[in-house]
Structure formats: structure tokens, C-alpha cells
């Protein structure tokens, strides 16, 4: 049996307090299934429909691993669109509130690149980005992913549908080989299976929906 209280997990007292303040009283099913594995450092593929609480599942994993005293980029979350990246950044900021001074930067297309480059020079613990713009920063060497601990592919099915697969391959090559990779998806078609095999290391699968 999987316990559904956050306090059954090895999370810091500060994070647990913050979850209480957010009134997250129990884990959603996808959180209950994926969080224990994520906190153990495993690569995880988690499939669950929209609204099932996937952001907090990887967000708590990132915050659990994060070393606040080091200003290098330790986590990268890739999202298909600017709107989704903003939503993820907002939820991460809510989850991180107990630990102030965690810097979360969004890097998306449609915004001028210069201010993003300047922000990167000041350091960002967590980057939430769309693949195209992140690739642009990698090519300009304005982003340093060498200290990355966690890579999250959020809404991976949509990223692949939108034609970002080749960008993802290039981005993953710029990440350290030793890292935790988490893949979240609403569906689990063949191309996601293929992407998982390429980007993840012996992943554990958590699936709450039947495949159509
Ligand atoms: P998904 O990415 O699976 O579509 P989200 O991560 O956006 O879902 O979460 C949907 C909503 O549920 C958000 O408003 C979030 O704040 C809320 N939520 C997530 N986890 C919990 C929880 N354990 N208890 C209560 N609300 C939660
Ligand atoms: Mg989501």
C-alpha cells in the first residue's frame, strides 16, 4: 500500500510546512505513485491526465535535491509552450516559498533574449524553458547546464507532437550524463516510448490511465 500523506516522505520540514500552508493535505494518485521513486533518485516516466498534480510531483523532487547555497543551475524543466512554462514556474515558486532565495527563471521564445542572457549571468537554480529558446541559449553558450542534477520533460507528448524531438536530442546532449531524468506525459504513444528509451536511464513507469 502506498501512503498518501506527504509527511510519509523524506521531505524537509520546511517543504512539509509549505505543503500544509498550500493546503495540499494528501498526495494525488500520480504523486503517491511517483514521488517515492523520484525522491529515491530514479528516472521516472509518469503518465496521467491534465490536472492530476504532475507539477508538484517533479517540483518536490527538484526542491528535495536542490542545494540552495550553490547558485548553479541544478534543474531544467522543458515545456511545450510559454503558457505552460509560466504555469510550471508559478507552481514551483509556490512550492519553494518556504525556502526563499531559490531562483527560478523562465526562458521562452516570444520574449527578447538579451534580458534572459543578463538574468542567466546572475544565476538560476531552476530553469523552466521551451525547447527552441533553450537551444538558442545553448548555442550562444549563455546557459551552463554542467551542474544539472534533474532534467524534466513535461508534457513530453505535446513537445514531440509540436516537432521538438530533434531539439530535445540536442538539449539532452548538453546535459550531464549523470542526472535524474523525469518524463511526464498525458498519453503514452510509441514516439514517447522511443523518447523515453533514448533520454532516460532504466526508468520506472507510473501509469494511471489506460492507453487508447
Ligand atoms: P497536471 O500537470 O497533472 O495537469 P497540475 O500540476 O497543474 O496538474 O495540478 C493541477 C492543480 O492541482 C494545481 O492547481 C495544483 O496546485 C493542484 N494540486 C497539485 N497537487 C495537489 C495536492 N496534493 N493537493 C491539492 N491540490 C493539488
Ligand atoms: Mg502539467
UniProtKB/TrEMBL annotation:
Belongs to the DEAD box helicase family. This is ATP-dependent RNA helicase DbpA. Residues 4-32 form the DEAD-box RNA helicase Q domain. Residues 35-206 form the Helicase ATP-binding domain. A motif (Q motif) lies at residues 4-32. The chain holds residues 1 to 212 of 465 of the full protein.
Amino acid at each position: 500500500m502506498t501512503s498518501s500523506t506527504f509527511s510519509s516522505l523524506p521531505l524537509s520540514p520546511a517543504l512539509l510546512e509549505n505543503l500544509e500552508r498550500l493546503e495540499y493535505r494528501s498526495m494525488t494518485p500520480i504523486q503517491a505513485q511517483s514521488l517515492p521513486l523520484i525522491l529515491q533518485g530514479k528516472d521516472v516516466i509518469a503518465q496521467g491526465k491534465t490536472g492530476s498534480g504532475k507539477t508538484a510531483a517533479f517540483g518536490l523532487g527538484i526542491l528535495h535535491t536542490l542545494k540552495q547555497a550553490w547558485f548553479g543551475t541544478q534543474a531544467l524543466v522543458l515545456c511545450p509552450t510559454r503558457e505552460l512554462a509560466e504555469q510550471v514556474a508559478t507552481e514551483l515558486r509556490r512550492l519553494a516559498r518556504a525556502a526563499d532565495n531559490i531562483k527560478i527563471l523562465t526562458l521562452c521564445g516570444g520574449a527578447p533574449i538579451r534580458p534572459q542572457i543578463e538574468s542567466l549571468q546572475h544565476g538560476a537554480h531552476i530553469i523552466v524553458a521551451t525547447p527552441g529558446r533553450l537551444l538558442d541559449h545553448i548555442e550562444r553558450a549563455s546557459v551552463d547546464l554542467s551542474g544539472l542534477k534533474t532534467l524534466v520533460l513535461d508534457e513530453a507528448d505535446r513537445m514531440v507532437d509540436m516537432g521538438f524531438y530533434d531539439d530535445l536530442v540536442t538539449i539532452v546532449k548538453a546535459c550531464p550524463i549523470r542526472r535524474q531524468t523525469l518524463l511526464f506525459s498525458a498519453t503514452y504513444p510509441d514516439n514517447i516510448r522511443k523518447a523515453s528509451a533514448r533520454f532516460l536511464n532504466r526508468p520506472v513507469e507510473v501509469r494511471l490511465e489506460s492507453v487508447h
